[in-house]
């Protein structure tokens, strides 16, 4: 009954499971349920039927996502809401950029998001989440689960009122509203119910909604890129590339120009499904990559999961050889590649791939800095997940099997700041990539300085 109340079907194939968690609403809801609700169900059953009779649940409870996982998921939802400018009402109903999915966030999911925003002192956004939770409460009081999961209703009402006042105090007279808020949230249950029924009056609710959504932040250039709002470049062509070497003469490749200055291009249909299956098979020990890697003190948002494909394999060597044939770059064909996977709301903040950006220290003493980056898209991403170059207003949406490459350095080896790039959060999908960085020194003779 519980699972059907949250729309969960038990019997799914692996593909269906991946598809299920590719939707951020499902992924978040599942994570929150297992983090917050499952231990409560465990307690309930322990009392009702005794611990010995529920070994499956005991094992499950040991594996529930921890606080950090929960925080990452909340940040993921927060990020997609902000970067894609999604209306929280839509997000709660399962609408992502105009696409309606057959899922919605639950009452308790909405409260968890409100609480998270409140803790971050973003009272405007907190009030938006709480407002929708209050509406949901009126539609579906969830009486059935209150005994087991607790009744958050009073907490929700007090938090909603506090957020509204605290937000109000930032837009109008500061101190008065805050004092009023504190008096109101300490009100008796009866007074609280009166305030709530006032707030829930349709005409008042419309006013509140207008108020909450009236102040908007202007989007950063990167955010515009993520939303696909840069002006299309018009002087670019798609062509078959067949002249550079014997390989290309025999097997011309579809090349799409992405930018002429600096030069960036994308090859299509150059990574095959069988290779993608193999690369996913190599990704059993993925580790978290974090935002703000250089600052150990702040909360480290998980941005990506990655692993190095370092096992020698025929497929890896074939891909390495293909890169050499396609690009003319020089490197050893048995070099490792990086496999990355971006799930719920994960992203990569704007950065440069060259070493002075300091994200990672490539082996620059022997091989030189990262001259170019080669990125294979190993999955379709139905929504979001673009690679954005905000300095040159270029957005590239992933296309499964395609390879994008760009230069990070000028001909003379100096950093080219136009190579600044970021990965937009995945809105809906499971984003896989395979990356190779091209070191500079081995290219000395194939890519000599022009001057
Ligand atoms: O996945 C992408 O689109 C880019 C990844 C990236 O920038 C990196 O790994 O350095
Ligand atoms: Fe990068």
TrEMBL record:
<comment type="similarity">
    <text>Belongs to the P4HA family.</text>
</comment>
<keyword id="KW-0847">Vitamin C</keyword>
<dbReference type="GO" id="GO:0031418">
    <property type="term" value="F:L-ascorbic acid binding"/>
</dbReference>
<feature type="domain" description="Fe2OG dioxygenase">
    <location>
        <begin position="333"/>
        <end position="440"/>
    </location>
</feature>
<dbReference type="InterPro" id="IPR013547">
    <property type="entry name" value="P4H_N"/>
</dbReference>
<dbReference type="Pfam" id="PF08336">
    <property type="entry name" value="P4Ha_N"/>
</dbReference>
<dbReference type="InterPro" id="IPR011990">
    <property type="entry name" value="TPR-like_helical_dom_sf"/>
</dbReference>
<dbReference type="InterPro" id="IPR006620">
    <property type="entry name" value="Pro_4_hyd_alph"/>
</dbReference>
<keyword id="KW-0408">Iron</keyword>
<dbReference type="GO" id="GO:0004656">
    <property type="term" value="F:procollagen-proline 4-dioxygenase activity"/>
</dbReference>
<dbReference type="Pfam" id="PF13640">
    <property type="entry name" value="2OG-FeII_Oxy_3"/>
</dbReference>
<dbReference type="GO" id="GO:0005506">
    <property type="term" value="F:iron ion binding"/>
</dbReference>
<keyword id="KW-0479">Metal-binding</keyword>
<keyword id="KW-0223">Dioxygenase</keyword>
<keyword id="KW-0256">Endoplasmic reticulum</keyword>
<keyword id="KW-0560">Oxidoreductase</keyword>
<protein>
    <recommendedName>
        <fullName>procollagen-proline 4-dioxygenase</fullName>
        <ecNumber>1.14.11.2</ecNumber>
    </recommendedName>
</protein>
<dbReference type="InterPro" id="IPR044862">
    <property type="entry name" value="Pro_4_hyd_alph_FE2OG_OXY"/>
</dbReference>
<dbReference type="InterPro" id="IPR045054">
    <property type="entry name" value="P4HA-like"/>
</dbReference>
<dbReference type="InterPro" id="IPR005123">
    <property type="entry name" value="Oxoglu/Fe-dep_dioxygenase_dom"/>
</dbReference>
<dbReference type="GO" id="GO:0005788">
    <property type="term" value="C:endoplasmic reticulum lumen"/>
</dbReference>
<comment type="function">
    <text>Catalyzes the post-translational formation of 4-hydroxyproline in -Xaa-Pro-Gly- sequences in collagens and other proteins.</text>
</comment>
<keyword id="KW-0325">Glycoprotein</keyword>
């Amino acid at each position: 009954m519980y699972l059907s109340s949250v729309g969960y079907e038990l019997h799914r194939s692996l593909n269906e499971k991946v598809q299920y968690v590719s939707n951020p609403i499902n992924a978040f809801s599942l994570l929150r349920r297992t983090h917050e609700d499952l231990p409560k169900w465990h307690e309930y059953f322990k009392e009702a039927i005794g611990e010995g009779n529920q070994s499956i649940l005991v094992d499950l409870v040991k594996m529930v996502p921890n606080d950090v996982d929960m925080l990452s998921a909340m940040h993921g939802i927060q990020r997609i809401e902000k970067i894609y400018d999604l209306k929280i009402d839509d997000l709660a109903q399962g609408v992502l950029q105009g696409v309606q999915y057959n899922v919605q966030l639950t009452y308790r999911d909405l409260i968890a998001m409100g609480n998270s925003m409140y803790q971050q002192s973003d009272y405007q956004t907190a009030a938006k989440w709480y407002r929708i939770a209050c509406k949901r409460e009126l539609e579906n009081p969830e009486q059935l689960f209150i005994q087991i999961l607790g009744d958050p209703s009073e907490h929700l009402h007090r938090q909603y009122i506090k957020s509204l006042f605290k937000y109000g105090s930032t837009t109008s007279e500061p101190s008065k509203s805050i004092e009023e808020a504190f008096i109101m949230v300490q009100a008796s249950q009866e007074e609280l119910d009166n305030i709530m029924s006032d707030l829930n009056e349709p005409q008042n609710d419309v006013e509140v909604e207008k108020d909450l959504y009236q102040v908007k932040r202007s989007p950063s250039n990167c955010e515009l890129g993520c939303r696909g709002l840069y002006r299309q470049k018009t002087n670019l062509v798609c062509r078959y590339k067949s002249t550079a070497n014997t390989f290309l003469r025999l097997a011309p490749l579809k090349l799409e120009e992405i930018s002429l200055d600096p030069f960036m291009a994308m090859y299509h249909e150059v990574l095959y499904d069988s290779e993608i299956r193999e690369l996913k098979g190599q990704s059993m020990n993925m580790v978290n990559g974090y935002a703000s890697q250089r600052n150990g003190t702040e909360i480290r948002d998980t941005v990506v999961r990655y692993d190095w494909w370092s096992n020698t394999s025929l497929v890896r060597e074939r891909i390495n050889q293909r890169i050499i044939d396609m690009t003319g770059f020089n490197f050893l064909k048995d070099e490792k590649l990086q496999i990355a996977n971006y799930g719920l709301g994960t992203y990569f903040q704007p950065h440069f791939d060259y070493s002075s950006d300091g994200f990672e220290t490539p082996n620059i003493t022997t091989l030189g800095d990262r001259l170019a980056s080669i990125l294979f898209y190993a999955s379709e991403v139905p929504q979001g997940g673009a690679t954005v170059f905000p300095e040159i207003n270029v957005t590239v949406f992933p296309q499964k099997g395609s390879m994008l490459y760009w230069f990070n350095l000028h001909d003379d080896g100096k950093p080219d700041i136009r190579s600044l790039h970021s990965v937009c959060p995945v809105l809906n999908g499971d984003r896989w990539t395979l990356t190779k960085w091209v070191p500079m020194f081995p290219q000395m003779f194939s890519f000599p300085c022009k001057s």
